[in-house]
Amino acid sequence: MKALFDTVSLKASKMVTNAYSTSFSLGIRMLHESVREPVYAIYGFVRFADEIVDSFEGYDKEALITDFRKQTVEAIEHNISLNPILNSFQHAVNYYKIDQWLIDAFFDSMEMDLEEQTYDQATFEKYILGSAQVVGLMCLRVFCNGDNMQYESLKDGAMSLGSAFQKVNFLRDLKADKDNLGRLYFPGMNVQEWTPELKAAIEKDIAADFKHALEAINRLPANSKYGVYTAYRYYFKLFRKLENASFEELFTKRLRVPNSTKFRLLFTSKARLAMGAYFL
């Protein structure tokens, strides 16, 4: 009756997704039902790892993430885990042939969060690759469902989208990352120097990621285009709010997109896709 355990495992991944991110939960519901379950499995997995390095104060985070990494390898090798989050993740990895290097890069970035970092461009790009871009590539493997040619053609765009999302998160969470975690991710940023020029450079970089990602979204398979495009427009809307705020505001409060706007995006995105109008 392993099928029952697999069902319970997937419910656990879905519950984690819904509990930790209303935005991603909303986006996943806009995907075709054939790809929702593996995306829940992927998000549940990355969320648990992220919680280890971000939230488990008073515990040996290094030991926990090392053990979680080891359990992940074993789950994939043995096609099962008694950890329901890892059980549903290994099923997605094995069924969709998700590349091992994506998982390795993800854990490498999570481990970077265990120590205080001063990021230069090289280490920043390494962190973005493992914390965001590879997650987009995992999901792309699901969307392409074995079509390697399609995957390769969309790979760069998926990485740009993951990069844009993560950098927007960094801007939105400047206050929490600095105050609670002692982190400032953007190269050249420190608590004494919050210059308009630095903010403009960060925003230019994010805008370029969004622009590159949109072209790939236009070519996504039907099973994922609506959900990804909706998530794209939500993050772009948040990006515009962050652009209009000063560094001082970003370091004192957390800006967000109202739920009413999120729901409006659902309907307008569907209408735009029906008309073949892929724009912001």
Give an account of the 3D structure:
The chain is an all-alpha fold and 280 residues long. It has a single domain, classed as Farnesyl Diphosphate Synthase (Orthogonal Bundle). The chain is 76% helix and 0% strand. It is built from 13 helices and no strands. The chain has helices spanning 2-20, 22-29, 33-55, 61-78, 84-96, 100-112, 121-144, 148-172, 174-181, 196-217, 225-243, 247-250, 259-274. The chain is globular and about 60 Å long. The model has no long low-confidence stretch (mean pLDDT 91).
Largest sheet: none
Oligomer class = single chain
How much strand?
Answer: under 5%
Q: How many E-type strands? A: 0
**Overall shape:** globular
Q: Quickly count the domains.
A: 1
**What is the top-level CATH class?**
Mainly Alpha
What share of the residues lie within helices?
Answer: over 70%
* Helix/strand order, N-terminal first: HHHHHHHHHHHHH
Low-confidence stretches: none
- How far apart, in Å, are the first and last alpha carbons? 47 Å
